[in-house]
Amino acid sequence: MLDKSHKPTWTSFEEATKADWDAVMEYEEAYNAALPDRILDAIRSLDEEWTPYPVNRYQHSLQAATRAYEDGADEELVVAALIHDTGDILSPYNHGELSAAMMKPYVSERTHWILKHHCVFQGYYYNHHLGGDRNARDKYRDSPYWEDCRYFCHEYDQKAFDPDYPTRPLEFFEPMLRRVLNKGEGHMELNETADA
């Protein structure tokens, strides 16, 4: 149980003691345990009333996840489909990178790569209408995950705008999200070494 009565007296990291850092880590573990709830809230915040798309981003996210689930994708990829556009909330022009960074401690290199690059792969379907290069994704052809990302975008993302598609509710995906977020590496900086 966190001791909320003790207020730290250090004012810089270099002044903090091992006991201070133990208290910080105890707090962070408690705070981080609520990460799934914060991500679920972020997904819900995509449920805007007006959108130029046939469905809003919330419905799109649920539909992409449903399509991945129905296709037999592994749980990690289903969760990736669910959260792939949550980065839009804070970083609309590079939302894929933000969504990928958010999930990096919890998913495989493959899933992280798909999340990070899905935006440029999606451009295949519309860049040419907006003056861009629809084949921009080809600069990543040498990646072992190129085909996985192409498939993710083609089968789950770009076609997840059907208002009549039988989409599963967020509650269906919540246990999956919690399981994926439960298997993380923790503080990634603690895994770094000077010789890496």
Automatic annotation (TrEMBL):
Gene3D superfamilies: Hypothetical protein af1432 (1.10.3210.10)
InterPro entries recorded: HD_domain, OP_Dioxygenase
Pfam families: HD (PF01966)
Top-level taxon: Bacteria
Domain HD, chain residue ranges per copy: 57-128
Name used for this protein in its record: HD domain protein
